[in-house]
Amino acid sequence: MKINSILIISLVLVFKANAATLPQYASEKHMGVATCSSGVCHGKSVEDRKENVMMNEYREWLQYDDHSGAYKTLLKPTSKKIAAKLGLKSAHTAKICLDCHADNVPVEKRGKKFQISDGVGCEACHGGSEKWLSVHKESGATHQKNIKLGLYPSEKPKNRAKLCLSCHLGTANKFATHRIMGAGHPRLSFELESFTQNQPAHYKVDADYEKRKGSILSVNMWLTGLVYKANEQLALLKTKQFKQHGLFPELSFYECHSCHRSMAVSRWPVEKNSANVPAGTVRLDDSSLVILISTLDSLSNNSASKLKGLLEELHRSSIKSKQVLLDSVQKLQKELQQLSSGFVKKKYSRKQKLNFRKKLLLDASKGFFRDYSSAEQLFYAVETLSLDLNDFNKYEKMLDKLFNAIDKEDKFYPSQFQTLAKLFLNKLP
Ligand code: HEC
Ligand code: HEC
Ligand code: HEC
Ligand code: HEC
After folding, report:
1. pLDDT band at residue 265, thresholds of 50, 70 and 90?
2. What separation in Å is there between the alpha carbon of 162 and the centre of ligand 2?
3. Is the distance from CB of 231 to CB of 16 less than 8 angstroms?
4. Is 115 a domain residue?
5. What whole-number distance in Å separates Cα of residue 212 and Cα of residue 297?
6. Gap from CA of 185 to ligand 2 centroid (Å)
Protein backbone atom coordinates (compact mmCIF):
# COMPACT_ATOMS: atom_id res chain seq x y z
CA MET A 1 0.00 0.00 0.00
CA LYS A 2 1.31 3.44 -0.88
CA ILE A 3 1.99 5.94 1.92
CA ASN A 4 -0.63 8.17 0.33
CA SER A 5 -3.45 5.70 0.59
CA ILE A 6 -2.49 4.78 4.16
CA LEU A 7 -2.76 8.46 5.00
CA ILE A 8 -6.15 8.78 3.31
CA ILE A 9 -7.53 5.68 5.03
CA SER A 10 -6.37 6.83 8.47
CA LEU A 11 -7.88 10.28 7.87
CA VAL A 12 -11.20 8.72 6.93
CA LEU A 13 -11.08 6.53 10.05
CA VAL A 14 -10.45 9.52 12.32
CA PHE A 15 -13.34 11.37 10.67
CA LYS A 16 -15.68 8.44 11.20
CA ALA A 17 -14.52 7.44 14.68
CA ASN A 18 -15.55 10.77 16.17
CA ALA A 19 -19.11 10.64 14.92
CA ALA A 20 -21.71 9.17 17.30
CA THR A 21 -24.34 6.73 15.98
CA LEU A 22 -27.60 8.53 15.16
CA PRO A 23 -30.40 8.01 17.74
CA GLN A 24 -32.57 6.25 15.14
CA TYR A 25 -29.95 3.57 14.50
CA ALA A 26 -28.29 3.15 17.92
CA SER A 27 -29.05 0.01 19.95
CA GLU A 28 -30.82 1.55 22.99
CA LYS A 29 -34.61 1.43 23.38
CA HIS A 30 -36.61 4.67 23.11
CA MET A 31 -38.79 4.91 26.20
CA GLY A 32 -41.13 7.65 24.89
CA VAL A 33 -41.77 11.36 25.48
CA ALA A 34 -44.12 10.47 28.37
CA THR A 35 -41.12 9.20 30.36
CA CYS A 36 -39.50 12.69 30.17
CA SER A 37 -42.57 14.89 30.49
CA SER A 38 -43.86 14.38 34.02
CA GLY A 39 -44.37 17.44 36.22
CA VAL A 40 -41.43 16.52 38.44
CA CYS A 41 -39.11 16.01 35.45
CA HIS A 42 -38.89 18.01 32.19
CA GLY A 43 -42.59 18.88 32.21
CA LYS A 44 -42.63 21.76 34.72
CA SER A 45 -44.84 24.65 33.68
CA VAL A 46 -42.16 27.26 34.29
CA GLU A 47 -38.39 27.18 34.36
CA ASP A 48 -36.93 25.77 37.59
CA ARG A 49 -34.07 28.07 38.58
CA LYS A 50 -32.72 25.65 41.19
CA GLU A 51 -31.82 23.05 38.55
CA ASN A 52 -29.01 23.36 36.04
CA VAL A 53 -31.37 22.62 33.14
CA MET A 54 -34.69 24.40 32.52
CA MET A 55 -37.05 21.49 33.44
CA ASN A 56 -39.84 22.98 31.29
CA GLU A 57 -38.33 21.54 28.08
CA TYR A 58 -41.42 19.45 27.36
CA ARG A 59 -43.71 22.52 27.47
CA GLU A 60 -41.38 24.51 25.21
CA TRP A 61 -41.19 21.64 22.73
CA LEU A 62 -44.94 20.98 22.82
CA GLN A 63 -46.01 24.62 22.46
CA TYR A 64 -43.41 26.24 20.25
CA ASP A 65 -41.27 23.64 18.51
CA ASP A 66 -42.44 22.40 15.07
CA HIS A 67 -40.86 19.03 15.84
CA SER A 68 -43.69 18.19 18.24
CA GLY A 69 -46.19 18.63 15.38
CA ALA A 70 -44.17 16.72 12.78
CA TYR A 71 -46.37 13.61 12.97
CA LYS A 72 -49.58 15.65 12.93
CA THR A 73 -48.36 17.19 9.67
CA LEU A 74 -48.71 13.73 8.15
CA LEU A 75 -52.45 13.75 8.93
CA LYS A 76 -53.05 17.04 7.11
CA PRO A 77 -54.61 17.35 3.63
CA THR A 78 -51.25 18.36 2.06
CA SER A 79 -49.68 15.13 3.28
CA LYS A 80 -52.70 13.11 2.15
CA LYS A 81 -52.25 14.56 -1.35
CA ILE A 82 -48.52 13.80 -1.34
CA ALA A 83 -49.20 10.23 -0.23
CA ALA A 84 -51.88 9.76 -2.90
CA LYS A 85 -49.59 11.03 -5.65
CA LEU A 86 -46.87 8.63 -4.51
CA GLY A 87 -49.28 5.71 -4.36
CA LEU A 88 -48.81 5.29 -0.59
CA LYS A 89 -51.67 3.94 1.53
CA SER A 90 -51.34 6.90 3.91
CA ALA A 91 -48.61 9.33 4.93
CA HIS A 92 -48.83 8.62 8.66
CA THR A 93 -48.18 4.91 8.18
CA ALA A 94 -45.55 5.15 5.45
CA LYS A 95 -42.01 4.42 6.65
CA ILE A 96 -40.52 7.01 4.31
CA CYS A 97 -42.59 9.81 5.89
CA LEU A 98 -42.32 8.56 9.50
CA ASP A 99 -38.54 8.24 9.26
CA CYS A 100 -38.24 12.06 9.27
CA HIS A 101 -41.55 13.15 10.81
CA ALA A 102 -41.35 10.95 13.92
CA ASP A 103 -38.95 8.96 16.09
CA ASN A 104 -39.37 5.93 13.86
CA VAL A 105 -37.29 3.29 15.62
CA PRO A 106 -38.18 -0.38 14.98
CA VAL A 107 -41.02 -1.78 17.12
CA GLU A 108 -38.65 -3.89 19.26
CA LYS A 109 -36.81 -0.71 20.27
CA ARG A 110 -39.94 1.05 21.59
CA GLY A 111 -40.61 1.20 25.33
CA LYS A 112 -44.10 0.80 26.90
CA LYS A 113 -44.87 4.52 26.89
CA PHE A 114 -43.50 5.17 23.40
CA GLN A 115 -45.96 6.75 20.97
CA ILE A 116 -45.16 7.30 17.33
CA SER A 117 -47.70 10.19 17.29
CA ASP A 118 -45.34 12.23 19.51
CA GLY A 119 -43.51 13.17 16.33
CA VAL A 120 -39.87 14.18 16.55
CA GLY A 121 -39.70 13.60 20.31
CA CYS A 122 -36.94 14.05 22.87
CA GLU A 123 -35.19 10.77 22.08
CA ALA A 124 -35.18 11.40 18.33
CA CYS A 125 -32.48 13.96 19.13
CA HIS A 126 -31.14 12.93 22.52
CA GLY A 127 -30.94 9.18 21.90
CA GLY A 128 -32.82 6.21 23.36
CA SER A 129 -32.93 6.62 27.14
CA GLU A 130 -33.22 2.93 28.05
CA LYS A 131 -29.90 2.96 29.95
CA TRP A 132 -29.63 6.58 31.12
CA LEU A 133 -33.25 7.42 32.02
CA SER A 134 -33.05 6.37 35.66
CA VAL A 135 -29.44 7.33 36.33
CA HIS A 136 -29.12 10.74 34.57
CA LYS A 137 -30.97 12.48 37.41
CA GLU A 138 -29.04 10.83 40.25
CA SER A 139 -26.28 12.69 42.03
CA GLY A 140 -22.94 11.82 40.51
CA ALA A 141 -24.37 11.63 36.99
CA THR A 142 -22.21 13.51 34.51
CA HIS A 143 -22.66 14.34 30.87
CA GLN A 144 -19.79 11.99 29.96
CA LYS A 145 -21.39 9.08 31.87
CA ASN A 146 -24.74 9.76 30.20
CA ILE A 147 -23.08 9.71 26.79
CA LYS A 148 -21.53 6.33 27.56
CA LEU A 149 -25.06 5.09 28.33
CA GLY A 150 -26.41 6.24 24.98
CA LEU A 151 -27.20 9.96 25.31
CA TYR A 152 -26.46 11.57 21.95
CA PRO A 153 -23.82 14.34 22.23
CA SER A 154 -25.86 17.04 20.46
CA GLU A 155 -23.78 19.87 21.94
CA LYS A 156 -20.87 18.97 19.63
CA PRO A 157 -21.18 20.82 16.28
CA LYS A 158 -20.19 17.81 14.22
CA ASN A 159 -22.69 15.50 15.91
CA ARG A 160 -25.39 18.15 15.87
CA ALA A 161 -24.83 18.69 12.14
CA LYS A 162 -25.05 14.96 11.50
CA LEU A 163 -28.24 14.71 13.58
CA CYS A 164 -30.12 17.64 12.06
CA LEU A 165 -28.98 16.85 8.52
CA SER A 166 -30.21 13.28 8.86
CA CYS A 167 -33.74 14.72 8.46
CA HIS A 168 -33.09 18.17 6.98
CA LEU A 169 -31.06 16.74 4.10
CA GLY A 170 -31.50 12.96 4.37
CA THR A 171 -29.27 9.90 4.61
CA ALA A 172 -28.55 6.82 2.53
CA ASN A 173 -31.64 5.26 4.19
CA LYS A 174 -34.13 8.13 4.11
CA PHE A 175 -34.16 10.73 1.42
CA ALA A 176 -36.63 13.26 0.04
CA THR A 177 -36.37 12.31 -3.62
CA HIS A 178 -37.53 14.43 -6.56
CA ARG A 179 -40.56 12.16 -6.78
CA ILE A 180 -41.48 13.17 -3.20
CA MET A 181 -40.81 16.83 -4.07
CA GLY A 182 -42.83 16.48 -7.26
CA ALA A 183 -45.73 15.12 -5.22
CA GLY A 184 -45.73 18.40 -3.29
CA HIS A 185 -43.14 18.17 -0.50
CA PRO A 186 -41.42 21.49 0.27
CA ARG A 187 -37.78 21.85 -0.82
CA LEU A 188 -35.43 21.11 2.08
CA SER A 189 -32.91 23.76 3.05
CA PHE A 190 -30.55 23.83 6.01
CA GLU A 191 -27.85 25.88 7.66
CA LEU A 192 -26.68 24.64 11.08
CA GLU A 193 -26.36 27.89 13.02
CA SER A 194 -29.54 29.55 11.68
CA PHE A 195 -31.61 26.42 12.23
CA THR A 196 -30.15 26.06 15.72
CA GLN A 197 -31.29 29.64 16.40
CA ASN A 198 -34.68 29.10 14.75
CA GLN A 199 -35.51 26.03 16.80
CA PRO A 200 -37.19 27.40 19.94
CA ALA A 201 -34.48 26.87 22.56
CA HIS A 202 -35.31 24.62 25.52
CA TYR A 203 -31.82 25.07 26.98
CA LYS A 204 -29.61 27.97 28.02
CA VAL A 205 -25.95 28.22 27.18
CA ASP A 206 -24.92 29.90 30.45
CA ALA A 207 -21.81 29.57 32.64
CA ASP A 208 -23.05 26.32 34.14
CA TYR A 209 -23.78 24.84 30.69
CA GLU A 210 -20.31 25.86 29.50
CA LYS A 211 -18.74 24.12 32.46
CA ARG A 212 -20.61 20.89 31.72
CA LYS A 213 -20.51 20.89 27.93
CA GLY A 214 -18.37 23.74 26.67
CA SER A 215 -19.81 26.28 24.26
CA ILE A 216 -19.42 26.94 20.58
CA LEU A 217 -19.37 30.42 19.09
CA SER A 218 -21.97 30.99 16.41
CA VAL A 219 -19.37 31.62 13.69
CA ASN A 220 -17.74 28.26 14.42
CA MET A 221 -21.11 26.52 14.40
CA TRP A 222 -21.92 28.12 11.05
CA LEU A 223 -18.57 27.21 9.41
CA THR A 224 -18.63 23.66 10.79
CA GLY A 225 -22.18 23.30 9.49
CA LEU A 226 -21.18 24.42 5.99
CA VAL A 227 -18.36 21.85 5.86
CA TYR A 228 -20.58 19.05 7.17
CA LYS A 229 -23.51 19.80 4.92
CA ALA A 230 -21.23 19.90 1.88
CA ASN A 231 -19.58 16.66 3.00
CA GLU A 232 -22.91 14.88 3.57
CA GLN A 233 -24.22 15.99 0.18
CA LEU A 234 -21.08 14.60 -1.44
CA ALA A 235 -21.29 11.39 0.60
CA LEU A 236 -24.88 10.84 -0.56
CA LEU A 237 -23.76 11.00 -4.20
CA LYS A 238 -21.91 7.74 -3.46
CA THR A 239 -25.03 5.96 -2.17
CA LYS A 240 -27.97 4.24 -3.79
CA GLN A 241 -29.92 7.51 -3.48
CA PHE A 242 -28.03 8.92 -6.46
CA LYS A 243 -29.50 6.44 -8.88
CA GLN A 244 -30.61 6.66 -12.45
CA HIS A 245 -34.36 6.95 -13.16
CA GLY A 246 -34.64 6.10 -16.83
CA LEU A 247 -32.48 8.66 -18.60
CA PHE A 248 -32.09 10.96 -15.60
CA PRO A 249 -30.09 10.79 -12.38
CA GLU A 250 -31.86 11.58 -9.07
CA LEU A 251 -32.75 15.27 -9.46
CA SER A 252 -32.86 16.15 -5.74
CA PHE A 253 -29.06 16.49 -5.77
CA TYR A 254 -29.24 19.36 -8.24
CA GLU A 255 -29.95 23.01 -7.61
CA CYS A 256 -33.76 22.93 -7.98
CA HIS A 257 -33.91 26.32 -9.65
CA SER A 258 -31.52 25.36 -12.40
CA CYS A 259 -34.67 23.79 -13.88
CA HIS A 260 -37.53 25.45 -11.99
CA ARG A 261 -37.34 29.06 -13.07
CA SER A 262 -38.65 31.52 -15.61
CA MET A 263 -37.08 31.33 -19.06
CA ALA A 264 -37.49 35.09 -19.36
CA VAL A 265 -34.93 35.89 -16.66
CA SER A 266 -31.36 35.21 -17.71
CA ARG A 267 -29.27 33.66 -14.95
CA TRP A 268 -26.15 32.74 -16.85
CA PRO A 269 -23.43 35.28 -16.19
CA VAL A 270 -21.10 36.24 -19.04
CA GLU A 271 -18.12 35.73 -16.77
CA LYS A 272 -17.40 32.48 -14.89
CA ASN A 273 -19.77 31.32 -12.15
CA SER A 274 -18.92 28.76 -9.47
CA ALA A 275 -19.70 25.87 -11.78
CA ASN A 276 -17.71 27.15 -14.77
CA VAL A 277 -19.67 24.88 -17.09
CA PRO A 278 -21.38 25.89 -20.36
CA ALA A 279 -24.68 27.80 -20.17
CA GLY A 280 -27.66 25.49 -19.99
CA THR A 281 -25.99 22.86 -17.78
CA VAL A 282 -27.97 21.47 -14.84
CA ARG A 283 -25.83 22.11 -11.75
CA LEU A 284 -25.37 20.06 -8.61
CA ASP A 285 -26.36 22.05 -5.51
CA ASP A 286 -23.10 23.63 -4.31
CA SER A 287 -24.59 26.37 -2.12
CA SER A 288 -22.75 25.47 1.11
CA LEU A 289 -19.43 25.15 -0.68
CA VAL A 290 -19.56 28.44 -2.55
CA ILE A 291 -20.27 30.29 0.70
CA LEU A 292 -17.46 28.42 2.45
CA ILE A 293 -15.03 29.21 -0.38
CA SER A 294 -15.93 32.89 -0.47
CA THR A 295 -15.45 33.13 3.32
CA LEU A 296 -12.12 31.30 3.37
CA ASP A 297 -10.91 33.48 0.54
CA SER A 298 -10.72 36.41 2.97
CA LEU A 299 -8.19 34.54 5.16
CA SER A 300 -4.79 34.45 3.60
CA ASN A 301 -4.28 30.73 3.16
CA ASN A 302 -4.63 28.54 0.12
CA SER A 303 -7.60 26.37 1.14
CA ALA A 304 -10.09 28.57 -0.72
CA SER A 305 -8.33 28.26 -4.07
CA LYS A 306 -7.81 24.52 -3.57
CA LEU A 307 -11.51 24.00 -2.82
CA LYS A 308 -12.49 26.22 -5.71
CA GLY A 309 -10.41 24.17 -8.16
CA LEU A 310 -11.89 20.93 -6.83
CA LEU A 311 -15.45 22.31 -7.00
CA GLU A 312 -14.98 23.34 -10.64
CA GLU A 313 -13.65 19.87 -11.34
CA LEU A 314 -16.74 18.38 -9.65
CA HIS A 315 -19.07 20.38 -11.90
CA ARG A 316 -17.10 19.52 -15.04
CA SER A 317 -17.15 15.83 -14.04
CA SER A 318 -20.88 15.95 -13.42
CA ILE A 319 -21.49 16.36 -17.15
CA LYS A 320 -19.11 13.55 -18.12
CA SER A 321 -19.96 10.30 -16.38
CA LYS A 322 -20.88 8.96 -12.98
CA GLN A 323 -17.47 7.34 -12.45
CA VAL A 324 -15.59 10.55 -13.25
CA LEU A 325 -17.97 12.42 -10.95
CA LEU A 326 -17.36 9.99 -8.06
CA ASP A 327 -13.60 10.42 -8.44
CA SER A 328 -14.00 14.19 -8.02
CA VAL A 329 -16.34 13.65 -5.06
CA GLN A 330 -13.59 11.64 -3.38
CA LYS A 331 -11.00 14.40 -3.85
CA LEU A 332 -13.28 17.14 -2.62
CA GLN A 333 -14.28 15.11 0.45
CA LYS A 334 -10.64 14.51 1.32
CA GLU A 335 -9.97 18.24 1.23
CA LEU A 336 -13.04 18.98 3.38
CA GLN A 337 -12.04 16.36 5.92
CA GLN A 338 -8.70 18.03 6.38
CA LEU A 339 -10.43 21.36 6.95
CA SER A 340 -13.22 20.18 9.21
CA SER A 341 -11.63 19.92 12.64
CA GLY A 342 -10.09 23.40 12.42
CA PHE A 343 -13.43 25.18 12.35
CA VAL A 344 -14.78 23.91 15.63
CA LYS A 345 -12.28 25.59 17.93
CA LYS A 346 -10.52 28.30 15.96
CA LYS A 347 -11.06 31.79 17.39
CA TYR A 348 -11.72 34.42 14.75
CA SER A 349 -10.99 38.04 15.58
CA ARG A 350 -13.56 40.77 15.11
CA LYS A 351 -11.57 42.03 12.15
CA GLN A 352 -11.59 38.60 10.50
CA LYS A 353 -15.35 38.31 11.00
CA LEU A 354 -15.89 41.78 9.53
CA ASN A 355 -13.79 40.64 6.59
CA PHE A 356 -15.89 37.48 6.19
CA ARG A 357 -19.06 39.55 5.84
CA LYS A 358 -17.45 42.06 3.55
CA LYS A 359 -16.02 39.39 1.26
CA LEU A 360 -19.36 37.55 1.07
CA LEU A 361 -21.23 40.74 0.14
CA LEU A 362 -18.49 41.74 -2.29
CA ASP A 363 -18.78 38.40 -4.09
CA ALA A 364 -22.58 38.69 -4.02
CA SER A 365 -22.36 42.17 -5.52
CA LYS A 366 -20.21 40.73 -8.31
CA GLY A 367 -23.01 38.27 -9.07
CA PHE A 368 -21.33 35.13 -7.73
CA PHE A 369 -24.46 33.81 -6.00
CA ARG A 370 -26.94 33.73 -8.87
CA ASP A 371 -28.46 30.38 -7.88
CA TYR A 372 -31.37 30.69 -5.45
CA SER A 373 -29.87 28.21 -2.95
CA SER A 374 -26.56 30.10 -2.81
CA ALA A 375 -28.40 33.39 -2.31
CA GLU A 376 -30.35 31.77 0.53
CA GLN A 377 -27.10 30.55 2.16
CA LEU A 378 -25.63 34.03 1.70
CA PHE A 379 -28.52 35.48 3.67
CA TYR A 380 -28.04 32.94 6.50
CA ALA A 381 -24.32 33.76 6.56
CA VAL A 382 -24.68 37.54 6.66
CA GLU A 383 -27.41 37.34 9.29
CA THR A 384 -25.32 35.01 11.49
CA LEU A 385 -22.26 37.25 11.16
CA SER A 386 -24.25 40.41 11.95
CA LEU A 387 -25.69 38.78 15.07
CA ASP A 388 -22.24 37.64 16.13
CA LEU A 389 -20.70 41.05 15.42
CA ASN A 390 -23.45 42.62 17.47
CA ASP A 391 -24.38 45.19 14.81
CA PHE A 392 -27.57 43.45 13.68
CA ASN A 393 -29.73 46.45 14.62
CA LYS A 394 -27.59 48.83 12.60
CA TYR A 395 -28.13 46.75 9.42
CA GLU A 396 -31.61 45.45 10.17
CA LYS A 397 -33.23 47.28 7.23
CA MET A 398 -30.68 45.92 4.75
CA LEU A 399 -31.05 42.42 6.18
CA ASP A 400 -34.84 42.72 5.79
CA LYS A 401 -34.43 43.70 2.15
CA LEU A 402 -32.04 40.83 1.50
CA PHE A 403 -34.52 38.47 3.17
CA ASN A 404 -37.42 39.76 1.09
CA ALA A 405 -35.41 39.09 -2.06
CA ILE A 406 -35.18 35.37 -1.20
CA ASP A 407 -38.42 34.94 0.76
CA LYS A 408 -40.37 33.67 -2.26
CA GLU A 409 -38.20 31.35 -4.27
CA ASP A 410 -40.30 31.72 -7.41
CA LYS A 411 -39.82 35.49 -7.26
CA PHE A 412 -36.03 35.47 -6.96
CA TYR A 413 -34.23 37.77 -9.36
CA PRO A 414 -30.44 37.36 -9.38
CA SER A 415 -29.71 40.90 -10.59
CA GLN A 416 -31.97 42.45 -7.94
CA PHE A 417 -30.18 40.38 -5.30
CA GLN A 418 -26.84 41.50 -6.69
CA THR A 419 -27.86 45.18 -6.49
CA LEU A 420 -29.03 44.77 -2.89
CA ALA A 421 -25.74 43.16 -1.94
CA LYS A 422 -23.90 46.12 -3.45
CA LEU A 423 -26.06 48.56 -1.45
CA PHE A 424 -25.37 46.58 1.74
CA LEU A 425 -21.65 46.51 1.00
CA ASN A 426 -21.57 50.29 0.58
CA LYS A 427 -23.07 50.74 4.05
CA LEU A 428 -20.28 48.75 5.72
CA PRO A 429 -17.34 50.63 7.24
C1 HEC B 1 -36.08 13.00 13.12
C2 HEC B 1 -35.99 14.05 12.13
C3 HEC B 1 -35.50 15.42 12.52
C4 HEC B 1 -34.36 15.75 13.23
C5 HEC B 1 -33.32 14.81 13.84
C6 HEC B 1 -34.32 17.20 13.26
N7 HEC B 1 -35.40 17.73 12.62
FE8 HEC B 1 -35.87 19.70 12.46
N9 HEC B 1 -37.63 19.22 11.54
C10 HEC B 1 -38.01 17.94 11.18
C11 HEC B 1 -39.30 18.00 10.53
C12 HEC B 1 -40.08 16.82 9.97
C13 HEC B 1 -39.71 19.35 10.55
C14 HEC B 1 -41.03 19.91 10.03
C15 HEC B 1 -42.06 19.74 11.09
C16 HEC B 1 -43.46 20.07 10.60
O17 HEC B 1 -43.81 21.26 10.51
O18 HEC B 1 -44.21 19.12 10.33
C19 HEC B 1 -38.63 20.10 11.20
C20 HEC B 1 -38.64 21.47 11.42
C21 HEC B 1 -37.57 22.19 11.92
C22 HEC B 1 -37.53 23.63 12.04
C23 HEC B 1 -38.62 24.59 11.63
C24 HEC B 1 -38.62 24.71 10.15
C25 HEC B 1 -38.46 26.06 9.60
O26 HEC B 1 -38.37 26.16 8.34
O27 HEC B 1 -38.39 27.04 10.37
C28 HEC B 1 -36.30 23.97 12.55
C29 HEC B 1 -35.78 25.36 12.84
C30 HEC B 1 -35.58 22.74 12.76
N31 HEC B 1 -36.38 21.68 12.37
C32 HEC B 1 -34.30 22.66 13.29
C33 HEC B 1 -33.66 21.46 13.60
C34 HEC B 1 -32.36 21.39 14.24
C35 HEC B 1 -31.50 22.56 14.64
C36 HEC B 1 -32.09 20.05 14.39
C37 HEC B 1 -30.86 19.42 15.01
C38 HEC B 1 -30.57 19.82 16.37
C39 HEC B 1 -33.21 19.31 13.85
N40 HEC B 1 -34.13 20.18 13.36
C41 HEC B 1 -33.30 17.92 13.87
C42 HEC B 1 -37.29 16.78 11.38
C43 HEC B 1 -36.15 16.67 12.13
C1 HEC C 1 -35.48 13.29 4.59
C2 HEC C 1 -36.49 13.65 5.57
C3 HEC C 1 -37.92 13.81 5.15
C4 HEC C 1 -38.72 12.90 4.50
C5 HEC C 1 -38.33 11.55 3.91
C6 HEC C 1 -40.04 13.48 4.47
N7 HEC C 1 -40.03 14.71 5.05
FE8 HEC C 1 -41.59 16.02 5.14
N9 HEC C 1 -40.35 17.46 5.90
C10 HEC C 1 -39.06 17.24 6.32
C11 HEC C 1 -38.52 18.46 6.87
C12 HEC C 1 -37.12 18.65 7.45
C13 HEC C 1 -39.53 19.44 6.76
C14 HEC C 1 -39.45 20.89 7.20
C15 HEC C 1 -38.86 21.68 6.06
C16 HEC C 1 -38.53 23.11 6.45
O17 HEC C 1 -39.45 23.85 6.83
O18 HEC C 1 -37.35 23.50 6.35
C19 HEC C 1 -40.68 18.76 6.14
C20 HEC C 1 -41.89 19.38 5.84
C21 HEC C 1 -43.01 18.71 5.38
C22 HEC C 1 -44.30 19.32 5.12
C23 HEC C 1 -44.62 20.81 5.29
C24 HEC C 1 -44.94 21.07 6.72
C25 HEC C 1 -45.45 22.46 6.99
O26 HEC C 1 -45.91 22.66 8.13
O27 HEC C 1 -45.35 23.32 6.12
C28 HEC C 1 -45.18 18.33 4.74
C29 HEC C 1 -46.65 18.47 4.39
C30 HEC C 1 -44.43 17.10 4.74
N31 HEC C 1 -43.12 17.37 5.12
C32 HEC C 1 -44.96 15.84 4.46
C33 HEC C 1 -44.18 14.69 4.23
C34 HEC C 1 -44.71 13.45 3.73
C35 HEC C 1 -46.18 13.17 3.42
C36 HEC C 1 -43.65 12.60 3.58
C37 HEC C 1 -43.64 11.20 3.05
C38 HEC C 1 -44.00 11.04 1.66
C39 HEC C 1 -42.46 13.32 3.99
N40 HEC C 1 -42.84 14.57 4.41
C41 HEC C 1 -41.16 12.81 3.95
C42 HEC C 1 -38.33 16.07 6.20
C43 HEC C 1 -38.76 14.95 5.50
C1 HEC D 1 -34.80 18.53 17.20
C2 HEC D 1 -33.91 18.06 18.23
C3 HEC D 1 -34.30 18.13 19.68
C4 HEC D 1 -35.47 17.66 20.26
C5 HEC D 1 -36.67 17.06 19.58
C6 HEC D 1 -35.33 17.86 21.68
N7 HEC D 1 -34.11 18.43 21.95
FE8 HEC D 1 -33.35 18.84 23.81
N9 HEC D 1 -31.72 19.72 22.92
C10 HEC D 1 -31.46 19.77 21.58
C11 HEC D 1 -30.25 20.52 21.36
C12 HEC D 1 -29.63 20.81 20.00
C13 HEC D 1 -29.76 20.90 22.63
C14 HEC D 1 -28.52 21.75 22.93
C15 HEC D 1 -27.27 20.92 22.83
C16 HEC D 1 -27.06 20.03 24.03
O17 HEC D 1 -26.89 20.56 25.15
O18 HEC D 1 -27.05 18.80 23.86
C19 HEC D 1 -30.70 20.35 23.61
C20 HEC D 1 -30.55 20.43 24.98
C21 HEC D 1 -31.38 19.81 25.91
C22 HEC D 1 -31.11 19.72 27.32
C23 HEC D 1 -29.82 20.14 28.00
C24 HEC D 1 -29.83 21.46 28.67
C25 HEC D 1 -28.54 21.68 29.40
O26 HEC D 1 -28.44 22.75 30.02
O27 HEC D 1 -27.64 20.83 29.39
C28 HEC D 1 -32.18 19.09 27.90
C29 HEC D 1 -32.38 18.76 29.37
C30 HEC D 1 -33.11 18.76 26.83
N31 HEC D 1 -32.59 19.19 25.63
C32 HEC D 1 -34.29 18.09 27.02
C33 HEC D 1 -35.19 17.79 26.01
C34 HEC D 1 -36.49 17.19 26.23
C35 HEC D 1 -37.07 16.80 27.57
C36 HEC D 1 -37.07 17.06 25.00
C37 HEC D 1 -38.45 16.54 24.68
C38 HEC D 1 -39.56 17.16 25.33
C39 HEC D 1 -36.11 17.54 24.01
N40 HEC D 1 -34.99 17.97 24.67
C41 HEC D 1 -36.30 17.53 22.63
C42 HEC D 1 -32.22 19.21 20.58
C43 HEC D 1 -33.46 18.62 20.75
C1 HEC E 1 -33.18 18.55 -14.19
C2 HEC E 1 -34.29 19.45 -13.96
C3 HEC E 1 -34.94 19.47 -12.59
C4 HEC E 1 -34.36 19.67 -11.37
C5 HEC E 1 -32.90 19.87 -11.05
C6 HEC E 1 -35.43 19.68 -10.40
N7 HEC E 1 -36.63 19.47 -11.02
FE8 HEC E 1 -38.45 19.45 -10.16
N9 HEC E 1 -39.33 18.96 -11.93
C10 HEC E 1 -38.65 18.83 -13.13
C11 HEC E 1 -39.58 18.33 -14.13
C12 HEC E 1 -39.24 18.04 -15.58
C13 HEC E 1 -40.83 18.21 -13.48
C14 HEC E 1 -42.15 17.73 -14.07
C15 HEC E 1 -42.82 18.95 -14.59
C16 HEC E 1 -44.26 18.68 -15.01
O17 HEC E 1 -44.90 17.83 -14.43
O18 HEC E 1 -44.74 19.41 -15.87
C19 HEC E 1 -40.64 18.62 -12.10
C20 HEC E 1 -41.63 18.68 -11.15
C21 HEC E 1 -41.50 19.22 -9.89
C22 HEC E 1 -42.56 19.54 -8.99
C23 HEC E 1 -44.07 19.33 -9.27
C24 HEC E 1 -44.67 20.57 -9.81
C25 HEC E 1 -46.14 20.35 -10.18
O26 HEC E 1 -46.56 20.97 -11.16
O27 HEC E 1 -46.84 19.62 -9.49
C28 HEC E 1 -42.01 20.04 -7.86
C29 HEC E 1 -42.72 20.55 -6.62
C30 HEC E 1 -40.57 20.02 -8.04
N31 HEC E 1 -40.30 19.50 -9.29
C32 HEC E 1 -39.63 20.42 -7.08
C33 HEC E 1 -38.26 20.33 -7.25
C34 HEC E 1 -37.31 20.55 -6.19
C35 HEC E 1 -37.66 20.93 -4.76
C36 HEC E 1 -36.07 20.37 -6.74
C37 HEC E 1 -34.72 20.46 -6.06
C38 HEC E 1 -34.50 19.61 -4.90
C39 HEC E 1 -36.27 20.05 -8.14
N40 HEC E 1 -37.61 20.01 -8.40
C41 HEC E 1 -35.24 19.83 -9.04
C42 HEC E 1 -37.32 19.11 -13.35
C43 HEC E 1 -36.38 19.34 -12.37
Report:
1. confident
2. 18
3. no
4. yes
5. 35
6. 6
